[in-house]
Design a protein that fits this description.
The complex is a heterodimer. By secondary structure, chain A is α+β, with helices and mostly antiparallel strands. Chain A is 26% helix and 24% strand. Chain A has a five-stranded mixed β-sheet. In chain A, a hairpin with a 2-residue loop joins strand 3 (59-62) and strand 4 (65-66). The longest helix of chain A is centred in the middle third of the chain and has 10 residues, at 29-38. The two termini of chain B are 19 Å apart. Chain B has one domain: 3-Layer(aba) Sandwich (Rossmann fold), CATH 3.40.50.720. The chains are: A alpha+beta, B alpha/beta.
Chain lengths: 92, 248
């Protein structure tokens, strides 16, 4: 299946604004992001925590809707989904 | 009632929203939390628009490293309280409005007094613990909060109407790590002006606010995105409140 990953802010600088991934059916959000991080150590360091989970502050959206909860990264993606990853900025 | 000077000063925007609109701005009281990169453009544009009562809060003094983006602070102000420096310039920019500048840290103790009897709170802070405190007080008091944040060429803005829209904790429940953030002054200008525009629209009761939308500015690619956000039913800050907000 194909999933589009849209990146914002610092993530966009690392992996570009949009990536289309070819994934196996049943791949989770975590699987898609690990797929991307396999090609970019910088993305892995920016998006994941030391335990290998998606960092808690990273905002994740599927088809424009934010996903939340402790199991958010285990949500299964479907063909044609758009996954958005956004690291909020903090300065002022 | 607008004076002759005020009618002249605001002529071009009275053409836009009439004397009634200008009176709404004149009678408004806005708190700007932070007199830094975001606070400077927000305060400048609210002052020139004629928002009648601006309260600006900051506990810091001006440092040379601030001067690439904090446009109300100049070389001569290094070492001076940011509130003193900002207050001085804002009074020169528009002598027809009231400027209050408080050098104080916003915390649980000071917040009730600082946010009493105001129509809007602008988040021009530089860290999430302080932002979550503003969010908490905005929800508790039913006052709209205008959030902005920046890093590098990137920025984000949203407008929070307590009880109606997603609050800051709904959108960003966990704070990103603290850092000395890199930033270019134009990013602060872009985001601060969008925040000021939101405040003005809210006070006038016109246009579509950024409620339930997070606007994301990518200055490197000159792209503005807005992503849909919504209230989190399990939000620890706002899930308990109903839609009781009186929109101006």
């Amino acid at each position: 299946m194909k999933v589009r990953v849209k990146a914002f802010a610092r993530f966009r600088e690392i992996i570009g604004s949009e990536n289309t991934l070819e994934l196996y059916e049943g791949t989770s959000v975590l699987g898609a992001l690990k797929n991307l991080s396999a090609g970019s150590i910088d993305f892995r360091d920016a998006c994941f925590d030391k335990e290998g989970n998606v960092a808690s502050f990273v905002v994740l959206m599927i088809n424009g809707k934010r996903i939340s909860g402790t199991d958010r990264e285990m949500m299964v993606l479907r063909d044609g989904d758009e996954l958005a990853v956004f690291p909020p900025v903090a300065g002022g | 009632m607008l004076s002759g000077n005020e009618q002249e000063r605001y002529h071009r925007q009275i053409l836009l929203f009439g004397e009634d609109g200008q009176e709404k701005l004149k009678s408004a009281r806005v708190v700007i939390a932070g007199a830094g990169g975001l606070g400077c453009p927000v305060a400048t544009y609210l002052a020139v628009a004629g928002v009648g009562h601006i309260r600006i809060i900051d506990h810091d003094t001006v440092e040379r490293t601030n001067l690439n983006r904090q446009i109300l602070h100049w070389e001569k102000d290094i070492g001076v309280a940011k509130t003193g420096s900002a207050g001085e310039k804002l009074k020169l920019i528009n002598p027809d409005i009231v400027i209050e500048a408080f050098r104080v840290t916003i915390d649980e103790e000071t917040a009730p007094g600082l946010f009493r009897d105001v129509d809007a709170i602008v988040d021009a802070m530089d860290n999430y613990p302080a932002r979550y405190l503003l969010n908490h007080w905005a929800i508790k008091s039913g006052i709209p909060l205008f959030h902005g944040a920046i890093r590098g060429f990137d920025g984000q803005v949203t407008t929070i109407i307590p009880g109606k829209t997603a609050c800051l904790s709904c959108i960003i429940p966990k704070a990103p790590p603290k850092e000395i953030f890199p930033v270019i002054g134009v990013t602060a200008g872009m985001i601060g002006m969008i925040q000021a525009n939101e405040v003005i629209k809210y006070l006038l009761g016109t246009g579509e606010l950024l409620g339930n939308r997070l606007l994301i500015w990518d200055g490197l690619n000159s792209v503005l995105d807005t992503v849909h956000v919504e209230r989190d039913p399990s939000c620890t800050e706002c899930s308990h409140i109903q839609d009781t907000m009186k929109v101006r």
